[in-house]
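Section 3.1: Structural characterization of target chains.
Under the original work plan, the team committed to producing a structural model for every single-chain target entering the pipeline before any wet-lab resources were allocated. The record below documents one such target. The sequence was received from the expression subgroup and is listed exactly as submitted; it comprises 221 residues.
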Amino acid sequence: MQYESPQALLDYAQSFAGFTLGELCERYKEQVPQQLLHKKGWVGQFLEMILGATSGSLAQPDFPELGVELKTLPIDEQGRPLESTYVSVVPLMNIHGLRWENSVVRHKLLQVLWIPIVASREIPIEDRQIAMPFLWQPTPEEEQTFKQDFEDVLDQVAMGRIEQLDARLGDILQVRPKAANSKALTDAIGPDGATIKTLPRGFYLRPQFTKRCLQQQFDLL
């Protein structure tokens, strides 16, 4: 699906506000999974499908022609984020010359279509409701914080300190393991510069930050 502008994409996304996932699945002849434990990305993939995202799993925004990344945001009934938000993988090898300005994580955060979903654990998946989508761009101050967080992480990776890297680092961006199971290992720089095996890591937005985005957009919480 082609959109003339980010606003056209937003208009279409907002037409789904108020619908439940079950209602949308019925409209698009999709099956609602019974549980999301082993299908954690299903909601985002389903919304990408109905909105016509073209990027798939490539290292670029979901709508590359618009420079817009789609992110679902699970919230509770009071509009509070329920979890941190995955952005992209943390590069663990071949990081020489990698800078914030040319990083995947920056390109994915330059413009985000947020789709909040009321998704408290006790609500059945088919009854979880789409709230009002909105477009968001970081302020210069926020991007500077992103950059500092990113550079702090890459410094740790370059020094072979990947095993000491945890979710406490970073004001907005935090690093967490990203793997379906503990056997999905990848290469990384070890303490002595040799290659080691470790769990893949991902950049995540802290829920305190996405809460602030919601506050600014809807003047709530």
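The two ends are 35 Å apart (CA to CA).
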